[in-house]
Specification:
- The chain has about 90 residues and is of the alpha+beta class.
- Helices cover about 30% and strands about 20% of the residues.
- It has a domain at about 25-85: Cytidine Deaminase, domain 2 (3-Layer(aba) Sandwich).
- The longest helix is centred in the middle third of the chain and has 17 residues, at about 55-70.
- β1, α2 (about 55-70) and β2 form a beta-alpha-beta unit.
- It is globular, with a radius of gyration of 13 Å.
Length: about 90
């Protein structure tokens, strides 16, 4: 792994996908770095790492966009309290 970048830090407020998902925000750094792949990671402050319907939906869309721009989405990991959920481990990606 050559470079690790945080492309967006969350904060208090609505999740980004409720209104608009800024695909360029996700993929622009990877494109600039000429990355072949990305791993998406976010946390669930509730502590439950199980993906919501929106998480599953957004992961599928991001994987599709990644294919269009030539960047493979290797996994999407959701971090909870003392646990995590991997879309690859659960055959969802």
């Amino acid at each position: 792994m050559k470079d690790v970048r945080c492309v967006r830090r969350g904060g208090k407020g609505p999740p980004v996908y409720r209104n608009h998902l800024p695909y360029p925000t996700v993929f622009a750094p990877a494109i600039q770095l000429r990355a072949a792949a990305v791993i998406l990671i976010h946390n669930h402050p509730s502590g439950d790492p199980q993906p919501s319907t929106q998480d599953v939906e957004i992961t599928k869309r991001l994987a599709e966009v990644g294919k269009m721009v030539g960047i493979n989405v290797l996994d999407h990991v959701i971090i909870g309290h003392d646990a995590y959920f991997s879309f690859v481990d659960e055959d969802l990606l």
